[in-house]
Amino acid sequence: MKALVFHGRGQSAWEDVPDPDVVDATDAVVRVDVVTICGTDLHILKGDVPEVQPGTVLGHEAVGEVVEVGGDVRSVRPGDRVLVSCITACGRCRFCREAMYGQCRGGGGWMLGNLINGTQAEYVRVPHADMSLHVLPGTVDSRDAVLLADIYPTAYEVGVVKGGVRPGDTVAVVGAGPVGLAAIAAAGLYSPERIIAVDLAPTRLDAAKHLGADAVAAPEEGPDELVADLTDGLGADVVIEAVGVPESFELCTRMVRPGGHLANIGVHGEPATLHLEDLWRRNVTITTGVVDTHSTPMLLRMLAAGRLPVSSLVTHAFPPDAMEEAYDVFARAADTGALKVVLAEQHDALLVKGADERK
Q1: I need a labelling partner for 174 at 20 to 30 A (CA). Which of 69, 196, 226, 301 fits?
Q2: Residue 185 in contact with residue 211, Cβ under 8 Å?
Q3: Residue limits of the Enoyl reductase (ER) domain (predicted)?
């Protein structure tokens, strides 16, 4: 089969690799019908995730059809259309029993495209299939559902829930990429007083407005001063960091109010300075985390009910064999206007629905 293989920092190729097989009795093999590219994949290519070894197939988000299952799999069977979760969960270890699936110690956590071969391929082996696959309702479009493999659970759980967003809050989201935009949409479910988005790219700030941001700013426009002006000098109740670079993290610490909450989503590849000489007296709570995906069933119900804005996040679509072109477009988002990029055989019908809706 064909797959996108990581060959070291800055190197990858769409090439032939062996088809996956059921290895353990809890495995399933899924034919990938729709796949997408995550900002974390770009971090891997930059060398920010050293655990990923050369030769690994990238990708951790997909929708597809189950083609084979191991003898112990009970919740899915061949022919089922499923969402492949970015997180694998054994369901038995201490962390899984606490619904902290991202910290699974039973051969789970973030495995696909990280410690084992991932989803940017024609087929993928999914360990612990009973806990790691979600059968999709017939009313849910596969190209919408793929956005619930990672970005929406991440934005909701690591950003909105860990950030403690409440009605009447001022919420600032730094980074209006796909996860940041999903955080804006998810924060809106809690009726904050206002949402402020910060990003370098005007196209992403436009998308942020479309998804519910009340005010937007580029970094050079003094977003910390904008937040202060809008809150009578107090600062934001919740600040969500969705970039993963030191400058954005430090900006977040300047924007959060005393007693406020900074929820870090971004994948950081280098140290960020924690200015405790300023923060220690301000009662600020800082949270981090990899997504657990415990919210995925709830988010799928909301998607089926038409309560989640998903299609507007997709700006570009390609056939699977254009994977390298898709990476180039996604990596140059400031120039291309790319938000979420999907790859599917039926890609023509998708172009460029999200962007058209924002015009």
Answers
A1: 301
A2: yes
A3: 8-343
Tokens of residue 95, six digits: 């962390």
Tokens describing residue 142: 């596969």
How confident is the model over 177-221, as pLDDT tens digits? 999 999 999 999 999 999 999 999 999 999 999 999 999 999 999
Name the residue ranges covered by the structural domains of the chain. Answer: 2-150+293-353, 152-287
CA distance to 135, 183, 188, 356, per residue, from 64 (Å) = 10, 25, 30, 26
pTM: 0.93
- Characterize the bridge pairing of strands 170-174 and 28-36: unpaired
Architecture of domain 2-150+293-353: Alpha-Beta Complex (3.90)
What gap in Å lies between CA 125 and CA 91, rounded to an integer? 18
- CB proximity list for 71: less than 8 A, separation 6 or greater: 25
Instruction: For residue 157, give the DSSP letter.
Output: I
Do residues 63 and 31 touch, judged by C-beta distance below 8 A? no
As a whole number of angstroms, the distance between CA 325 and CA 321 comes to 9
Q: Tokens representing 85?
A: 């979760």
Pick the CATH number of 152-287 from 3.90.25.10, 3.40.50.150, 3.40.50.720, 3.40.50.11740: 3.40.50.720
Per the DSSP assignment, residues forming a β-bridge with 62 are 35, 84
Average pLDDT rounded to a whole number, residues 78-106: 98
Task: Look at strands 28-36 and 340-344 and give their pairing.
Answer: antiparallel
